[in-house]
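Crash report, auto-generated. Payload:
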Amino acid sequence: MKIEKILKTYIPMTETAFYILLSLTIPRHGYGIIKHVEELTKGRLVLGSGTIYGTLTKMQRDEIITVYADEKRKTIYEITDVGKELMRHEVNRLKELHASALMYEGEFK
Amino acid sequence: MTTKKWRPLWSYDTEKTEPWLSNLSSQGNRLISVNRFTRMFTFEQGPAEDVQFQVVYDKSRKTLSKVIMESNWEEVFYTGNWRFLKNDSKGVSIYPSREGLLKRNRIHFYVLAGLAMFCVMPFLMMFLLIWTLLTDINSVEPSPYWWITAVYFMSVISVLVLTIFTAIKLKAFERKYFNSAVDDNEVSGKTFTKWRFAWMYEPDKLEKWLSEMAAEGNHLIRVGKIGTNFIFEKGTPSHVSFVCDYQIKTTPSYADIHKSAGWQLKFTSPYSLTKHSLWSQEYAEGEDIPRFTYDDAEQKAQVRKVLLASTGVIMYTLAIIFIYLWMGQSFERQVGWNVHSFIEWAMIISLLSPLMIMIKTFNYAIRMRSVN
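Recovered output after restart:
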């Protein structure tokens, strides 16, 4: 899949997709992702294994992430260069969102 | 000096092919090439090497990823989507994924199974015909085309044998590398069995029933092969969440990802397509009930998937029954050939099963509407 098409389908990213990719700064197991997202969001976002399975399957198909196995034959997920580019775009969008939020925050008081 | 070795079914049995290659390598046979069509492996005499092999099937044909190369995996030979990798380190902790290989062998299995289904019916008919002819030996005339019959028989038999072979190997492969086996509990006391039929069409009811059983101290030990008998053991009451999942198509990581999140696999239908599976997870008093998803949209999508599958089953059974009934009617009218009324009644009675599924599905849809 071309990067333009990936950007079009994934951006704006769902919270689930964003946190999954964010936790793949180091390669992790499926359950490792669930735990890490829970820590990052202080328990606000609890991902079920069905959610993780669905999202990872899609991301793997679109080559945003790639897999290998450890010595216990457990699957490990890792972000690809395409995935990194996708994250850079999304982070830029979020920065803009954040800046705008700060700029007009006062108006809603 | 080169040696050639023939291994016709190596790609369905990489569990044995990989150690075989390692073994040959330790005897000084270095792999040079593999011919995908003749299934011939060519080796060259060289110094003995103590290495482990892994065969990788990768449709994307990308170069090896950085992690794999850093873990000392080295490409010996590649052909088409196949790569033969070796590693001479002692404590290897990173392995290339076997998902591509599993997916490829699954497709081969489905094609073979389809072919086998397609062959078996005409095969049986012909077998019966030849049987009747042979028992009346005087009526048989030697035909110059007997070899066509022989070739046909041989090919049907080889398709059947190959289908069974790939099915067995595929299952073993999934169990070994993808943790797909059902989790069996140890039985310490007496067990009892309860029967449930057609629960696939009302998964929420089965989940509720099993949770209530667990709360009364009846713990599900296992489910029978075809998913109709549920075997329980009496114990202390506990909180257990059950999920009855349906997937149109599953990827290799399906079972493992749920297991790693603490789910136990209690039942699974045998194939990767139209997969029904039953999962359980214990939780403590006051904890949130574990689910596969906590997302509303995903839950709704799951309900839609189940409804779609049930509708498919209903349409399919109805179509078959109506075709038979219609055939019986037209035979009667045109040829005057009377289909036994017993068969006709049996067909009409068998209309009850799609009717029952239809009612169950309808009720399930209504219940899910009010829940979400």
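Post-recovery validation: Chain B touches chain A at residues 60, 65, 67-68, 92-99, 176-179, 243, 245, 251, 253-254, 256-258, 260-261, 263, 288, 290-295, 298, 302 (CB under 8 Å).
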